[in-house]
Amino acid sequence: MVERDSDRSVSQTVRAQLSLRDLILSGDLRPGERISELQAVETTGASRTPVRMALVRLEEEGLLEAIPSGGFMVKAFSERDVLDSIELRGTVEGLAARFAAERGVSSRDLEPLKGCLDEIDGLVRQDPISVEAFSSYVALNARFHALLTELSRSPPLIRQVDRASALPFASPSGFVMTQSTLPDARHTLLIAQDQHRVVVDAIENREGARAEAIMREHARVAARNLRLVLRNKTHSDLLPGLALIRMAGD
Amino acid sequence: MVERDSDRSVSQTVRAQLSLRDLILSGDLRPGERISELQAVETTGASRTPVRMALVRLEEEGLLEAIPSGGFMVKAFSERDVLDSIELRGTVEGLAARFAAERGVSSRDLEPLKGCLDEIDGLVRQDPISVEAFSSYVALNARFHALLTELSRSPPLIRQVDRASALPFASPSGFVMTQSTLPDARHTLLIAQDQHRVVVDAIENREGARAEAIMREHARVAARNLRLVLRNKTHSDLLPGLALIRMAGD
DNA sequence: AATGGATTTTCTGTATACATAGATGATCCA
DNA sequence: TGGATCATCTATGTATACAGAAAATCCATT
Question: Which GO terms describe its molecular function (chains A, B) (predicted)?
Answer without folding.
Answer: DNA binding; DNA-binding transcription factor activity
